[in-house]
Amino acid sequence: MAETFRWGVIGAGRIAQKFARDMQAVEGSEIYAVASRSGAQEFVKLFKPRVVYDSYPELAEDPHVDGLYIATTHNFHFENARLCLQAGKPVLCEKPLTVNAKQTEALVQLSQKNQVFLMEALWSRYLPLYQVVRELLNENEIGEVLALQSTFCIRANMDEKKRWLSPQLAGGTLLDLGIYPIAVSQWVLGENPVGVQSQAVLSSTGVDILLSANLQYPSGVISQFTSSFMHKARNDLTIHGSKGNIILKEPFWGATTAVLEVGGQQRVFQEPFRSQGFEYQIEEAVRCIREGELESPRMSHADTLANMRLMDTIREQVGVKYPFE
Amino acid sequence: MAETFRWGVIGAGRIAQKFARDMQAVEGSEIYAVASRSGAQEFVKLFKPRVVYDSYPELAEDPHVDGLYIATTHNFHFENARLCLQAGKPVLCEKPLTVNAKQTEALVQLSQKNQVFLMEALWSRYLPLYQVVRELLNENEIGEVLALQSTFCIRANMDEKKRWLSPQLAGGTLLDLGIYPIAVSQWVLGENPVGVQSQAVLSSTGVDILLSANLQYPSGVISQFTSSFMHKARNDLTIHGSKGNIILKEPFWGATTAVLEVGGQQRVFQEPFRSQGFEYQIEEAVRCIREGELESPRMSHADTLANMRLMDTIREQVGVKYPFE
After folding, report:
1. Closest Cα of chain B to A6: distance in Å?
2. Which CATH class name applies to B5-123?
3. What does the pLDDT read at residue A158?
4. Closest Cα to residue A141, out of A267, A270, A251?
């Protein structure tokens, strides 16, 4: 591996561009190549990769590429990641890693069989503020954790042709938005819920456009959240403890501010991003790949699998099934 | 009926005292008598009722009493209210009206059979701010209502002998705290949920000390709330609409401030209490009784019954059964 880590990017849309922009804040990494089936003009103009492919297999086979970032729509993650892992290329793949647990299981097996790195780009988990929150929890600042509450509700364009309303593209609030409260709950509690309850409103296209869920953990802790494309909410996340609360300020999934409330006093913690927040997951992926790890200890295969299984359960409860499943 | 409305009070504890204090802000009403089995010294000293009884039947039979307010613990509401209705005395009874729907049904039947007024003292419903919220909803300020979210979480004394932890006294967060988010949801939506989901943590005594629920209405609207004795939360209530939100500021159940958020703009509405907030329900009860009504149109028998049925369902889901049921 050369001194500079050379990234290939599959997909060239909005998220790929955010990734490439944040790469500029990562020392020792560069956007080396991009592959897009639908054209990458804007991406190329902005980030000037050395190589541009119009086929994914060519990129995956490029011997100069050290790792691949997958930024296509959810429904393609599985086949894109499989292609890369089969070619022996480390993978950082946008969340959700796949559209269901079955696909994730297959990728995890392939990663282990081929001894190739695989990580879900759940960027929240690598943010500096989340490390601060972890320390506050470890130091027992809020006592025993009892409940979590959050919203991820935005007013989205409700044109039926949009990606997030398309069953073919694995749309719905759960995979786009609800994944964050789920991932944070799992991260805070470090275990899997024993009780999952959810209700939703489905679009005319058949995906969830408003979803409310309660996750109850073995210890009794309940995590309650709502995700929505139809309305805007406060979009912070509170971890309620026996002695006090930690609030991850809006947007909690990309938070730079946390407030610790104990005994009527507030302490504010701030961890601004160097760039827009993807830089930390990039650094973690590079570190893991350079050290020959197959997964990140901060977002393990087991973590991703647990989240996917939870989302499968919730989709089953609310009646969202994708046509290709 | 004399010009001044003469109230008799059953029970002389904290809530009875709040009622009597707020009476001072109600023109044409007075605390005429009190009855307490466990002594009413403090009440008598503070509010100087003309008559003090140590038996409830004597108070209920007092021909000078125009109406009775019941402020005993939940478990006694049914027998206290029945006594009053049988004596032909109008009843304003603390929430919850009874501990379950079966008891409420019996009281409603008795009220109708004996043609005597009966009203649940769910004080939120009569507050001036709630009328403002109703107008905002009627004027379609936030568009279509899509979701409600609220918490009623306090740090309570967890001594097992406390009333709120006692199954014999019908303790638990639901009947003390959860009744408010339920009542507000029902009031906003004017219909009954078709989906009820709840999870709880039970105390060693067997009552709910942390409870999270989702109520889904026929239109799809989801009301999500948590009630807790173990932790403090934000305790406001948000009505999310397609165009904007209305936030009833903490404590939402006794709110004097509402914030209307539309298009990035906020408008603040304030309706301070004349006293501590019970004065409005007292005025409504007196108005109804003077006009010969059997129920208040603002908190009808059907409303109370619907709330009780919902709470029965939730208690069944989380496994809270009182020993006397």
Report:
1. 42
2. alpha beta
3. 96
4. A267
What is the residue type of A176? D
Q: What is the pLDDT of residue B1?
A: 59
Size of interface A-B (CB pairs under 8 A): 97
> What size, in residues, is chain B?
325
For residue A5, the cross-strand partners are A29
Q: Give the tens place of pLDDT for each residue, A158-205.
A: 999 999 999 999 999 999 999 999 999 999 999 999 999 999 999 999
DSSP B274: S
What tokens were used for B159? Answer: 């001594």
Please confirm whether the linkage preceding A251 is cis (ω < 30° from 0): yes
Query: What CATH topology corresponds to B128-272?
Result: Dihydrodipicolinate Reductase; domain 2 (3.30.360)
Amino acid at A82: R
In chain A the first and final C-alpha atoms are separated, in Å, by: 38
For B215, the closest chain A residue by CA position comes to A199
Cβ contact, residue pair B241, A233, below 8 Å = no
Residues forming beta bridges with residue B36, ordered by sequence position: none
- The answer to whether the Cβ–Cβ distance between B231 and A224 falls below 8 Å is no
Give Rg (Cα) of chain B.
19
Distance, in Å, from the CA atom of B160 to the CA atom of A54, rounded to the nearest integer, reads 69
Q: Which helix (H) or strand (E) holds B94?
A: strand B91-94
Which residues in chain B are contacts of A245 at CB distance < 8 A? 231-233
Residue A263: list chain B partners with CB under 8 A.
none
Residues of chain B found within 8 Å of residue A231, distances taken between Cβ atoms: 146-147, 240-242, 245
Given a cut of 90, whether residue A1 has pLDDT beyond it is no
The CB-side HSE value for B167 (13 A sphere, CA atoms) comes to: 15
What is the pLDDT, as a whole number, of residue B305? Answer: 98
8 A C-beta contact, residue A206 and residue A133: no
User: Which residue ranges make up each domain of chain B?
Assistant: 5-123, 128-272
**B230 contacts on A by Cβ (under 8 Å):** 146, 242
Q: Do A245 and B224 touch (CB under 8 A)?
A: no
